[in-house]
TrEMBL record:
InterPro entries cross-referenced by the UniProt entry: AB_hydrolase_1, AB_hydrolase_fold, Carboxylesterase_BioH
Transmembrane domains' residue ranges: none
This protein's name: Lysophospholipase
SUPFAM superfamilies the UniProt entry points to: alpha/beta-Hydrolases (SSF53474)
Domain AB hydrolase-1 residues, every copy: 69-187
Coiled-coil blocks: none
């Protein structure tokens, strides 16, 4: 019996005997990210960055100058996972700020969730120049969509490999860890209590999305079902949908088609130059 099977067996037994206890333990595990080191290919982008600390302690990396593009990585992710996209944005004349999410990297906290991610985006937006765009990957994408419902302002928003609702990942995690039905229900309730929002309300089909946007997903994503991209696109009137055949959950971040689509959207919503306005 492998270790995962053993853990599932223990969780199944404890879940029947003490569902609240095991749900509490799983809730802590679910909300406590590991800080994983950057890969070798991320190091050049890390070395070229400027480390900044925002007012409430959030840490971020900054590159370039120009209209501000704010990036949010996914769960247990890092700003430099966007390396190819960051370089393309800087080359195109944008200033890029990529956050360490709460409890990630050098940002404070021990636990995190999608609501805390969204609040971090709002805090950053309050300190930075007006945002030209917000780009989020995975939970970062879900948090960007949520933040848009909490007052986040930007000319464009990009969601990459993001779930269309949070209840699905919660249930998937609980089943994966072997929790029986009663323990799964307690687990969801405890996550909701810590996040401060009912999980059912964290669903793009309940959102009013009025920012021009782009939804990107790879068909071979093993983490978030590719069908979630269509759900997000259908709920988001002013959005474009880019489906990639390959790219998994993270490799697509460096796909030239994704980079081209992002730059195209940002160019569409860019304000006319002062000279252009003067000629009108």
């Amino acid at each position: 019996m492998n270790s995962l099977s053993l853990i599932r067996g223990i969780n199944a037994t404890l879940g029947r005997l003490a569902p609240r206890v095991i749900a509490r333990r799983m809730r802590r595990q679910f909300m406590t990210p590991r800080n994983l080191p950057p890969r070798d290919w991320e190091m050049p982008m890390l070395g070229s960055s400027e480390r900044i600390t925002l007012r409430f302690g959030l840490s971020a990396l900054r590159w370039g100058s120009g209209p501000t593009v704010l990036l949010m990585h996914g769960w247990e992710g890092r700003p430099t996972q966007f390396a190819s996209l960051i370089q393309a944005l800087v080359d195109a004349g944008y200033g890029v700020v990529a956050l360490d999410a709460p409890a990630h990297g050098r940002s404070p906290g021990r636990e995190a969730n999608v609501v805390l991610f969204a609040r971090a985006l709002l805090e950053a937006a309050g300190e930075l120049p007006p945002l030209h765009a917000v780009i989020g990957h995975s939970m970062g994408g879900a948090s960007a969509l949520l933040a848009s419902q909490m007052g986040l302002q930007a000319r464009a928003l990009v969601s990459i490999s993001a779930p269309s609702r949070i209840l699905g990942p919660l249930r998937s995690f609980a089943r994966y860890m072997g929790l029986p039905p009663r323990a799964r229900a307690h687990f969801v309730s405890q996550v909701e209590a810590h996040a401060g929002i009912p999980a059912a309300s964290l669903d793009v089909q309940r959102y009013q999305l009025d920012i021009p946007g782009l939804v990107v997903h790879a068909a071979d994503d093993p983490v978030v079902p590719a069908g979630d991209a269509q759900i997000i696109h259908d709920a988001w009137f002013d959005s474009q949908l880019l489906r990639l055949e390959l790219g998994g959950h993270q490799r697509l971040l460096s796909d030239p088609r994704l980079i081209s689509a992002v730059l195209g959207l940002l160019a569409q919503v860019r304000e006319p130059s002062s000279a252009s306005r003067a000629l009108r």
